[in-house]
């Protein structure tokens, strides 16, 4: 049995498209707590962290809400540390992917973790390279020490993770300058071409082997990693993504490693969804990550 602590982060401050702030509610409505309890886990829902409502923010904060996003990520960082100190596996319900700056920073405060970043995008921009300026596209870069000091030094000074401990899976949409940053970063990247050519089983197996020295693994699951036909309710859909079974297989094989220590579930946008399908898919993937199997 695992002690799981659910932390909701209803934020859309890190991106321009509205709706992902409703993601935690959609995931709860899809029954994430009850599904995990049925697997035999002890589940505590810690509720939502307080998030400013963007419509009430002063004009000088617009359009990027940078300062408010930094303050929120500092809260997330503390919540992640507290969950780990209490012996819990935190599951962070986003919200946009900027939340990972706080969650990954917090869970690595007292020791390293392998990072598996499942995403259509690189999230490897800096303010100098980003066409949009949205913070949710800078998360992984900031965690690796690239970008403005307010993001890089959040929680503690400097990079929070090492490139050799990071694997990106499902990538298929990189901005031009971002592509160069990813190539030079030293992280391991499996694009959709790699998955098409080699299969998810090989990719998952290599990822687990590469992180074999890491006692803990953090999975940051962006639902736009899936093909839009599988997960229509996301803010930045990109065709040609993971199938349902490819994503399930990845989660199942990661569960077999028995090293999952923290999880992000981000970018679920109920406004763009169909009958909460994307949240339901996300819950099923989290179930697999925590041990649900066919037999």
List key phrases describing it.
295 residues, alpha/beta, Arginase, Chain A, eight-stranded parallel beta sheet, 11 helices
Characterise this structure:
The chain has 295 residues and is an alpha/beta fold. The chain has one domain (3-289): Ureohydrolase domain (Arginase, Chain A). Helix content is 36%, strand content 16%. It has helices at 23-29, 32-38, 66-85, 99-107, 139-143, 149-152, 176-185, 192-198, 200-210, 244-257, 277-289, and strands at residues 3-9, 42-48, 89-94, 114-118, 166-171, 188-191, 217-222, 260-266. Strands 2-1-3-8-7-4-5-6 form an eight-stranded parallel beta sheet, with helices on both faces. Helix 7 links the parallel strand 5 and strand 6. The longest helix is centred in the N-terminal third of the chain and has 20 residues, at 66-85.
CATH class descriptor name: Alpha Beta
What's the number of structural domains? 1
User: What does the overall shape look like?
Assistant: globular
Poorly predicted runs are none
Number of contiguous helices: 11
Major β-sheet profile: 8 strands, parallel
What is the H/E order?
A: EHHEHEHEHHEHEHHEHEH
The portion of residues forming beta strands comes to 15-25%
């Amino acid at each position: 049995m695992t002690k799981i602590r659910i932390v909701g982060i209803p934020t859309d401050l890190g991106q321009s498209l509205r709706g992902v702030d409703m993601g935690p509610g959609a995931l709860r409505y899809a029954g994430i707590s009850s599904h995990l309890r049925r697997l035999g886990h002890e589940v505590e829902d810690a509720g939502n962290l307080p998030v400013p409502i963007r419509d009430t923010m002063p004009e000088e904060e617009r359009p990027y809400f940078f300062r408010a996003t930094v303050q929120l990520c500092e809260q997330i960082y503390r919540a992640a540390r507290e969950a780990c100190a209490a012996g819990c596996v935190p599951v962070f319900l986003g919200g946009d992917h900027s939340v990972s700056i706080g969650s990954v920073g917090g869970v690595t405060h007292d020791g390293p973790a392998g990072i598996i970043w499942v995403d259509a995008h690189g999230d490897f921009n800096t303010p100098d390279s980003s066409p949009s300026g949205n913070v949710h596209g800078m998360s992984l870069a900031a965690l690796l020490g690239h970008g403005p000091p307010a993001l890089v030094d959040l929680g503690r000074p400097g990079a929070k993770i090492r490139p050799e401990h990071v694997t990106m899976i499902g990538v298929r949409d990189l901005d031009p300058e971002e592509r160069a940053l990813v190539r030079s970063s030293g992280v391991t990247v499996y694009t959709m071409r790699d998955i098409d050519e080699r299969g998810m089983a090989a990719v998952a197996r290599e990822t687990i082997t590469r992180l074999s020295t890491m006692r803990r693994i953090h999975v940051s699951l962006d639902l736009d990693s899936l093909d839009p036909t599988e997960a229509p309710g996301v803010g930045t859909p990109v065709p040609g993504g993971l199938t349902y079974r490819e994503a399930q297989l990845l989660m199942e094989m990661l569960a077999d490693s028995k090293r999952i220590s923290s999880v992000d579930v981000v970018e679920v946008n109920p406004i763009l969804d169909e009958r909460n399908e994307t949240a339901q898919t996300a819950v099923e993937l989290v179930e697999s990550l925590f041990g649900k199997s066919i037999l």
